[in-house]
């Protein structure tokens, strides 16, 4: 049981299997074109279902806690990009330039939705505020991430981001999301009863993008450019970014006067980066770049954040009962 806590979950195993498959049997030619079409369709379906699932009542209920949401957004879209930029002289020698470009992209991504809420619930934090904060981060990231990527690319000497790329993000992610919100009155209940289906679409779309991305990267000589020493360096870079974010969100929320329940929400929503949003965005924003090296930092960060936050959530959940009552009272206020 103890060792099982540190073993990778099924989705991580599926990611590893997909990378191995792409390394041994990369798709090319007509097959690559077919996978591109399937990937685009899966991503559009994913964001349509997310729009249909997201409860408007939950968003309205959580919006009243504006200080918490601003803190989460500041951590996601200000703290992380600053860390990626300020720590570049220290961290970039550990990886290749293309991989560090992926690290900078990682720093611009929105927070996760499902795992942020799940860990907040596990730690007995402010769940309604977590739903609102994570959902707002994911939605705003459709606009903010492309703009931050443009700034990061210029600082990295790669040139700015074109408006065509922003338009591509809007068309591929936002339009299906809005369509799902419009259709929520008719299919929202059905989607809510079939949440497992959304999980399969979520994970399936990521696996499709990873397979096509790594297939192209392998054909371009990815594994010759990423030896084991560089891969270890990338793990160190990701671990440092996550550790700094966890420390800042935890003690920063206390310095700002937030209670324990709100602190939990800020820690778990403000320290995460979304693989589900990042991989589709990378496909649009980095057309022409070696996409495998762009998404590899996100994949590794995803697993590190899940393992670390699982341990942290259990530690929060073990706090004294009187603190738990405080969390429940604060969550009731938000409702």
Descriptive overview:
- This protein is mainly α.
- The chain has one domain (26-334): Na+/H+ antiporter like fold (Up-down Bundle), CATH 1.20.1530.20.
- Helix content is 81%, strand content 0%.
- It is built from 16 helices and no strands.
- It has helices spanning 10-24, 29-53, 56-62, 66-86, 88-91, 97-108, 114-122, 127-155, 163-193, 195-219, 222-225, 228-255, 260-270, 275-285, 291-317, 321-334.
- α8 runs parallel beside α13.
- The model is unreliable at 322-329 (pLDDT under 50).
How are the SSEs placed, and which strands pair?
Layout: H1 10-24, H2 29-53, H3 56-62, H4 66-86, H5 88-91, H6 97-108, H7 114-122, H8 127-155, H9 163-193, H10 195-219, H11 222-225, H12 228-255, H13 260-270, H14 275-285, H15 291-317, H16 321-334
């Amino acid at each position: 049981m103890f060792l099982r806590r540190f073993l990778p979950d099924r989705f991580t195993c599926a990611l590893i299997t997909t990378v191995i498959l792409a390394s041994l049997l990369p798709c090319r030619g007509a097959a690559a074109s077919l996978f591109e079409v399937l990937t685009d369709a899966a991503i559009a379906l994913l964001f349509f279902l997310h729009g249909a699932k997201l409860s408007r009542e939950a968003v309205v209920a959580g919006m009243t806690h504006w200080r918490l949401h601003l803190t989460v957004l500041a951590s996601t879209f200000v703290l992380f990009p600053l860390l990626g930029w300020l720590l570049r002289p220290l961290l970039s020698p550990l990886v290749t330039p293309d991989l560090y470009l992926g690290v900078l992209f990682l720093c611009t991504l929105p927070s996760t939705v499902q795992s942020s809420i799940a860990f907040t619930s596990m730690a007995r934090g402010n769940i309604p505020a977590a739903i609102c904060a994570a959902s707002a981060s994911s939605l705003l990231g459709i606009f903010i991430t492309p703009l931050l990527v443009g700034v990061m690319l210029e600082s990295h000497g790669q040139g700015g981001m074109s408006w065509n790329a922003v338009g591509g993000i809007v068309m591929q992610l936002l339009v299906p999301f809005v369509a799902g919100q419009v259709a929520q009155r008719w299919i929202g209940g059905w989607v809510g009863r079939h949440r497992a289906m959304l999980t399969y679409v979520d994970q399936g779309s990521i696996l499709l993008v990873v397979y096509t991305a790594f297939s192209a990267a392998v054909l371009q000589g990815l594994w010759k450019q990423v030896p084991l020493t560089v891969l270890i360096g990338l793990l160190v870079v990701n671990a440092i970014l996550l550790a700094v974010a966890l420390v800042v969100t935890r003690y920063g929320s206390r310095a700002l006067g937030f209670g324990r329940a709100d602190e939990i929400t800020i820690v778990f929503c403000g320290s995460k980066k979304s693989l589900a949003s990042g991989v589709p965005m990378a496909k649009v924003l980095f057309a022409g770049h070696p996409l495998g090296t762009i998404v590899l930092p996100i994949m590794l960060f995803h697993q590190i954040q899940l393992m670390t936050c699982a341990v942290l959530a259990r530690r929060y959940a073990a706090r004294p009962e009187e603190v738990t009552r405080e969390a429940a009272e604060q969550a009731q206020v938000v409702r």
